[in-house]
Design a protein that fits this description.
Elements lengths: L2 H16 L1 H10 L7 H13 L3 E4 L6 H11 L4 E5 L6 H5 E6 L4 E6 L6 E5 L6 H13 L1 E4 L2 E4 L5 E6 L12 H4 L4 E4 L5 H11 L14 H13 L4 H15 L13 E3 L3 H17 L7 H12 L4 E2 L1 H5 L4 H11 L4
Parallel strand pairs: 1-8, 1-9, 2-5, 5-8
Antiparallel strand pairs: 3-4, 6-7, 10-11
Helix pairs in contact: 1-9, 3-11, 10-11, 11-12, 12-14
């Protein structure tokens, strides 16, 4: 047996052992969240890769319930911030308050100082508030007055947008949207899932108690292990080909996309697709990444990074259709 094969066996055993907690989290969340496996898995990918998630879906799809339950299960602090037109950056990050008795200022920290943040309807607030949140996401620190404060890890932001009401909103600029690792589109549950939701939730009384099954340290240690997951050169090249096909489609034999894509995916897409594919393999208890891992997560990495042209919009071709066209035309290794 070759040295590489022995190393892969050892890594496989390590991944099996270190990723076991993923199943514990899923089982615990199943007690309260019905039919949102896609959203739960993507949130965990965000946690495992230190990436943030933008979520689009109508109200009532258990977004708040899912992320607050996840925070409980992994024993971390959770804050939900409702974004409104009158919200100020200080309401988010905190401010300096004058202490008359002592005759000096002290820092009052805002709700951003939690491990898991739900930024509800982020497009309801003006650009100053959005940029304050995005700076905290990017730098993992907040500056109040002359002092900078590190945000505690793990730190995950789930920002939601309501696709129905666009009146009186402040859409996130494309450059800011690019800072989100994934953009999810959450749909209604199936009829059978909705029946189960009704049977379980349409009653008064105490709510189901969730157990803490994982410590924050376990998540941070898992991030290190995710970095060790093996990715073959062919899979790496596949990721690069997918990204470049969104920028120069003609070079990849997809000439029809030249007039449909205004801007392709940024280098952040390449990095995030690599990380997310490794996390996907980790969640499947595998020590190596397959092309299918890349394909599973690609839509969520690309859908907010491709900007259609006016011609595409005139033909009612959206970013998701463009991503599908790219994926259908690039050969899978």
């Amino acid at each position: 047996m070759s040295e590489h094969a022995i190393d892969m066996m050892a890594l496989g055993e390590k991944i099996q052992e270190r990723s076991a907690f993923i199943d514990d989290i899923r089982r615990e969340l199943d007690k309260v969240v019905i039919g949102q496996k896609y959203m739960i898995d993507r949130l965990m990918i965000g946690l495992l890769t230190n990436g943030h998630v933008l979520l689009e879906g109508v109200p009532g799809l258990a977004k708040t319930l899912t992320i607050s339950s996840l925070a409980t299960v992994i024993d971390t602090d959770f804050q939900r911030i409702q974004f409104t037109p009158d919200l100020l950056p200080a309401d988010l990050i905190g401010t300096l308050i004058y202490n008359q008795k002592e005759g000096d200022f002290f820092v009052k920290k805002g709700p951003i100082f939690a491990n898991i943040i739900l930024a509800d309807e982020i497009n309801r607030s003006p650009a100053k508030v959005q940029s304050a949140l995005l700076e905290a996401m990017q730098e993992k620190q907040v500056t109040i007055g002359e002092e900078s404060f590190k945000l505690q890890e793990p730190f995950l932001v789930l920002a939601t947008q309501n696709p129905v009401e666009q009146e009186g909103t402040y859409p996130l600029p494309e450059a800011q949207v690019d800072r989100f690792m994934l953009k999810l589109k959450v749909d209604y549950p199936t009829p059978s899932e909705e029946l189960e939701i009704m049977r379980r939730m349409a009653r008064t009384g105490p709510k189901t108690t969730l157990n803490k099954v994982v410590s924050p340290d376990t998540i941070l240690q898992a991030r290190e292990v995710v970095n060790e997951i093996y990715m073959d050169e062919k899979v790496e090249q596949y990721i690069v080909d997918l990204v470049f096909a969104t920028r120069r489609p003609a070079e990849y034999g997809i000439q029809e996309l030249d007039e449909l894509i205004s801007f392709g995916a940024s280098p952040r897409a390449t990095i995030n697709l690599n990380l997310a594919a490794r996390a996907q393999a980790f969640m499947e208890h595998r020590a190596y990444v397959t092309p299918e891992d890349v394909r599973t997560i690609a839509m969520d990495v690309f859908r907010h990074r491709l900007i259609p042209t006016f011609e595409a919009e005139a033909e009612e071709i959206g970013a998701e259709q463009l991503v599908e066209m790219v994926m259908n035309n690039i050969q899978v290794p």
